[in-house]
């Protein structure tokens, strides 16, 4: 006789804490540890020099006609790879209205832009050594870096790279990030890249912990957060992709409290997004107004902003050792700076809701100042970016952080910016800032990096650098 009780009842689903209660402490210990399991901090530059000498690296400018697998598309003039993969250089027409009904001041411009719709992976592997979290950093060559090799994430690859559209070798250690163990994920978020040079570009920023053995080559070394913090104070050493991922690491909040609650900050930011109306549409590269097309460069008619150029590359530690490609070459050294004030003993930075033509969602939070000063040299003082002269004229005693950092070397040629955090007084930076600016704590910005498209890549770099300033060594280097 069959039972009338039916199948056994399913057991209740297990629940767990929404946050790992011990992670913040483990991050803090790593940030305070300046002696790593593999290298002393002062040995990193020598290791990078050794890896540079061990390989064959060469970057040469070439005419567009020597681009090999790249060509200008008939009709549109767009610069495309014959595989249809990687990226394209197209035209962009941007119209920006400011005001709740799109009736405020109006800007309009056209420019070349890099369109790369695929999402890449920027992943850093983490592992404990002697009870301290270390992070696996790579000595990676990028053609646009002035010094070629810089500290990079464990994995830094576009979808075209890791699906081998270039017919090169496999991306090492990729499996840790393509199908990560959900119990081992520390960071996993889509973040934007430069909205003034890219159209809707974003990458998956990841930190994944492992307990197993990692077969890493001589191009990889394990470093603590404290070691990386020290290296962030040096010019052109930690690359942009690594800085972006590191900005998302959940450091503990040492100074709770802020001028504005998190809800107030989000409401202000939502209002900024709502009041900006930015309409960007793709146009043929051949039709972009105000730009000259030459044999070796596409450049602005007044020599400002940037150029599109072509290079031939050889990099013996890359998945593909030899190739040609276009790069964007900025004109002049950029500046990205936070003004800093303390309110109630808590440091705050002045952030700007910045609209850029390539952003996915109108505005993102940016540094107080973000520009290339030379692009404004011809304008009257009133038309220069707010706070630019305050930053450029800052007394050295008021500079909390300063270093020249390279931007993304895979798409930009010698793109570098001077990153600063500058103490300001009430006269230079009042409690009640102008429209488009707000005071926020670094902890509030760190919380926002858990979500995509809130902080732009320049603000994330500065946040990583502020984390570096806050890190204190537990022991000698």
TrEMBL record:
Residues 42-249, 263-466 form the dTDP-4-dehydro-6-deoxy-alpha-D-glucopyranose 2,3-dehydratase domain. GO terms for molecular function: lyase activity. InterPro entries: EvaA-like, EvaA-like_sf. Residues 1-21 are annotated as: Disordered. DTDP-4-dehydro-6-deoxy-alpha-D-glucose 2 binds at residues 196, 291, 354, 370-372, 375-376. Coiled coil: none annotated. It holds the Pfam family Hexose_dehydrat. It comes from the Bacteria. DTDP-4-dehydro-6-deoxy-alpha-D-glucose 1 binds at residues 70, 158-162, 241, 408-411. Gene3D superfamilies: EvaA sugar 2,3-dehydratase subunit. This is NDP-hexose 2,3-dehydratase. It comes from Streptomyces monashensis. The lineage of its organism: Bacteria, Bacillati, Actinomycetota, Actinomycetes, Kitasatosporales.
């Amino acid at each position: 006789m069959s039972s009338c009780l039916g199948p056994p009842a399913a057991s209740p689903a297990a629940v767990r804490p929404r946050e790992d209660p011990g992670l913040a402490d483990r991050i803090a210990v790593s940030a305070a540890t300046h002696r790593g399991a593999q290298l002393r901090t002062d040995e990193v530059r020598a290791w990078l020099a050794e890896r540079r000498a061990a390989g064959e690296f060469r970057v040469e400018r070439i005419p567009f006609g020597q681009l090999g697998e790249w060509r200008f598309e008939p009709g549109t003039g767009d610069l495309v790879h014959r595989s249809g993969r990687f990226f394209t250089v197209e035209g962009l027409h941007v119209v920006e209205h400011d005001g709740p009904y799109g009736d405020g001041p109006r800007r309009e411009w056209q420019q070349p832009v890099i369109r790369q719709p695929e999402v890449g992976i920027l992943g850093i592997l983490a592992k404990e050594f002697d009870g301290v979290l270390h992070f696996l950093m790579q000595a990676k060559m990028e053609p646009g870096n002035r010094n070629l090799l810089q500290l990079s994430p464990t994995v830094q690859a576009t979808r075209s790279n890791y699906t081998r559209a270039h017919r090169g070798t496999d991306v090492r250690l990729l499996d840790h990030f393509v199908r990560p163990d959900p119990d081992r994920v520390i960071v996993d978020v889509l973040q934007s890249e430069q909205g003034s040079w890219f159209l809707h570009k974003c990458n998956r920023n990841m930190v994944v912990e492992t307990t197993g053995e990692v077969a890493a080559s001589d191009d990889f070394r394990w470093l603590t957060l404290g070691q990386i913090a020290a290296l962030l104070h040096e010019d052109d050493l930690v690359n942009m992709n690594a800085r972006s991922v590191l900005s998302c690491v959940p450091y503990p909040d040492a100074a709770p409290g802020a001028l504005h609650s998190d809800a107030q900050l989000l409401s202000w930011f939502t209002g900024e997004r709502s009041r900006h109306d930015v309409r960007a549409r793709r146009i043929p590269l051949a039709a972009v107004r105000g730009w000259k097309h030459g044999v070796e460069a596409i450049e602005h008619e007044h020599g400002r902003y940037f150029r599109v150029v072509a290079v031939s590359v050889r990099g013996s530690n890359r998945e593909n050792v030899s190739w040609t490609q276009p790069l964007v070459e900025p004109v002049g050294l950029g500046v990205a700076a936070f003004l800093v004030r303390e309110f109630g003993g808590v440091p705050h930075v002045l952030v700007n809701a910045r609209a850029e033509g390539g952003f996915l969602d109108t505005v993102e939070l940016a540094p107080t100042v973000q520009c290339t000063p030379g692009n404004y040299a011809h304008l009257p003082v009133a038309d220069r970016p707010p706070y630019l002269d305050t930053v450029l004229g800052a007394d050295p005693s008021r500079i909390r952080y300063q270093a020249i950092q390279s931007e993304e070397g895979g798409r930009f040629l010698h793109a570098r910016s001077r990153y600063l955090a500058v103490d300001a007084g009430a006269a230079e930076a009042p409690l009640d800032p102008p429209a488009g600016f707000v005071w926020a704590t670094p902890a509030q910005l760190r919380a926002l990096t858990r979500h995509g498209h809130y902080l732009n890549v320049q603000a994330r770099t500065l946040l990583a650098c502020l984390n570096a300033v806050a890190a204190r060594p537990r022991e000698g280097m």
